[in-house]
Amino acid sequence: MNEQFIQPSPWIIGYTIVFILISMGIGFYASKYAKTAEQFFGGTKMFGGVTIGLASMAAVMSAFGFIGGPGLVYKFGMSSIWMTIACGPGMAYGYWILAKRMRGMADVTDVATLPDIARVRFNSQAVRAVLAIGLFLAAISYLSSQVIGGGILMNQMLGVSNEWGIVIMFGTTVAYMIFSGMSGSILTDAFQGFVMLIAVIAVLVGFFMMTGGDLTPIMNSPQFGPSFVDGFGSMPLQAALVFGLIFFVGAMGQPTMLAKMYSLKTPQDIKKAGVIGGLSYGVTSIVWILCGYGALYIVATGASPALAKADNAAFLFVSKLGGVTQALVMAGLLAAIVSTSSFFISLSSSAITRDLIGAFGHEIPHDKQIRIGQILQVIVPLIAIGMGLWGGRMVAILGALGWGFFASVTIPTFAIGMLWKRCSTEGILTGLVFAVISNPAYLILENLKIFRFPFAGYLFCIAGAVVLTVVVSLFTKTSAGDNMPKALKPIFKL
Hints:
single chain, 494 residues, mainly alpha, Sodium/glucose cotransporter
C-alpha cells in the first residue's frame, strides 16, 4: 500500500460515488445507440464537435497527465511544461490536417476502427493486420500506466489497497463498456472532461491560497534550487526538447484522437473539435503543473518531508486543500484515468475482434463481433493489470513509453499515409513492421538494462518507422492511391 496522504472524507467518498453512478448511467444510456458493429467499436458519425473535443482531451490526459505529470514537475521542475506546450497544439494541428480525410472516409465506406481506415486507404489486409497488432500491444502498454495510477488514486481516495483500488476502478469501467463500447466511451469521456475542467478551478484556487504565487522557497531550497523554476528545470536541454517533440508528434498520432475523427456527425464539426480539444488540454494541464509545484512548495517550506515516490506529488498537494476543493480535484484525477482506460479497452478489443481476425479472411457477423468484443473488454484489463503490477515504474515513464509506441505505428499510417499521395502500401507495411518489432525490443533491452536511453529510444522508433515508410515508398513504382476505391479518390484529391 502507498503512503497515505489523504484521509477518506464524506466529501471524497460522496463525489466518488456520484461520479461512478453518472459515468455508468451515461454508458448504459449510450448502449441504446450501439446496435451495429460500427457504432459499438467506432461510434461512427454519432457526435458533435464539442463532445468530441472534450472527449479527446479527457482520453489523452489520463493518469499520465494527472498523476505522472505532477511527479515529473516534482522530479525535474519546469522541464515538464514542455509537454503542455507541445501537446495542445499537436492535438489541434492533428484535427486540422487529418480529420477532413478521416471523416470523409466514413461517408463513403463502412469504417469503425483505425485499421479499417488503413485497410481501405492502402487496399491491404496485411497493413490492417500489422496495425492491429501494433495498436493492441501499445494499448496494453499504455493501460498498464492507468493500472498503476488507478490503484494509487483509489488508495488515496477510499483508503483501500492498491489492488482493490484497481478492481473498483476497472470493474466500474468495464461494467458500462461491455454494453456501449466506443459510443459509451466517447459520451462518458466528454462528461469526465467537464469534470476535469472543474478540477482546474479548484486547483487554481487552492494553489494561490497556499502559496500566494510565490515560488521563492523552492528557489532557495538546497534540495531543489533555482533550476526547478527556470525554463528547462533540472532536465538537460536536449532531454526537454526531445520530450516536447515526442508529445507534439505523439499528440498528432494519438489513437484517442484519431479514432474520434470519424465519430464526428458532420465535416463542419472538425475545426470545433480541434480547437476545443487543444485548448481544453492546455487548460487542464494547469492542474498537474500546479499540483507539482504545490508539492515542491510544501516540501521546500518544511511542511512535509521529501517524497519517497514522485508519483505521490499530486496527493501531497491535494492533502493540504480543504474538503470540497480536495474532493473536486480528486474527482478530476479519477476522471482522467477512467476516460483513458475506457478508450483503450475498446481499442484493444476491436483490434483483435474486428481487425486482426478480419485481416485473415474470417469476417465475423456484426452481432458476434459485439459479443466477442464484450468478452475481450474483460480480458484486456486483466492483461494490463498483470503488466502494470509487474512493471513497477513511474506512471509518467510508462505513459511516455506508450505514447512513443502509438506514435511509431500511427504517424506513418495516418500523418504520412493520409497526406502524401506518393505513399505506397509497401512503404507503410515496412514502417509498421519496423515499429511493431523495434518498440517491444527496445522495452525488453531497457528492462534488462542492456540499453538505457529513455524517450530518445522511442524517438528512434518513431523516426525509423517514418524514414522507412518514406524511403520504401519512393522506391515503389505505384502508390496506394492507384488501387483505392473510386469513391474515396476525391477525398484524397487523387
